[in-house]
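Inputs:
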Amino acid sequence: MRKFGGTWSESKLDCVEAYTHRYLQVMQNQRWYSLDYVDAFAGRGKQALRKSSGSDAPEPESFFGDESERVDTQEFLVGSAIRALRASTSSTRSFDRFVFIDVDKPSCLELESIVLSDFHEIHDTVSVVCGNANAALGEYIEKVDWTHTRSLVFLDPYGLEVGWDLIMRLADTGACDVWYLFPLGGVIRMMTNDGQVPDTWRVRLDRVFGTNEWYDEFYRTSGQQSLFNDEASCRFKNASTDHVVDFIRKRLKTAFPAVSNAGILRNGKGVPLFALVLGVSNPSIAAQKAALGIANHLVKDLDQ
Ligand SMILES: C[S@@+](CC[C@H](N)C(=O)[O-])C[C@H]1O[C@@H](n2cnc3c(N)ncnc32)[C@H](O)[C@@H]1O
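Outputs:
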């Protein structure tokens, strides 16, 4: 049963926010570490809401994919960056530094101005970086002293923007807890039923999974040779939601020593859009156990 209220987007944010509170509580006893919060798809600080046609619950505009259709509304969903700042200012242990990344300049400017006005007392701990998440997060990973830093990272893309290389680099730090919103609906849609996946889509799928093994995993041979001896025409697609979720969790386990269960986020019509999953890179078994205990409890509440 889904306990987080509202839309899938709100549930996602509630889940990561709840984890952030627990993370800060756990880190109270580990004061020798500097604590970072990194939001690589940070947005503008809030999302305007408007009514979806499929349900009574308001959906965030971004779900419709057309930012030009911004509507005049008084309803806002508080975004991940502001939630992290609030969690930090209301906890005994706070983050020492925030890194907010977004490729969209107006979003960065709006977020910066909210930080300056609403979080003035800690604004010097916040960096808003306008750039591509893969490159900007790569630079961040390179600069940090990972023997003295722990980092909570949120990857909240619209689609297939996160490259596998970034996942590997985050895992290699041995110091990051990474919430990844995996684009389940996007990858399932790109895997065409007839197995004739356009080359540009194959490249994008290879990049998001970090391997081309997804093709053999999700396209099984029919056992019959076609008239034209064409490999793709003998294949049929076998990519249920559970199958794709199992596969991405297996892939994440090749990078992270511990990976949580996945929470499936669906739109108002029940269509699966994303899987929210936590990768823990800390090599300490105790740290992994603590993180997974919290995350598995939280993602259970996402399933509808
Ligand atoms: C789903 S929204 C994130 C919402 C945000 N976490 C919040 O709670 O409001 C995705 C964001 O990623 C940004 N974005 C898209 N592609 C990006 C990329 N390659 N690198 C960094 N940001 C990107 C968009 O501008 C958008 O603000």
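Remarks. The chain has one domain: 8-184+259-300. The longest helix spans residues 8-27.
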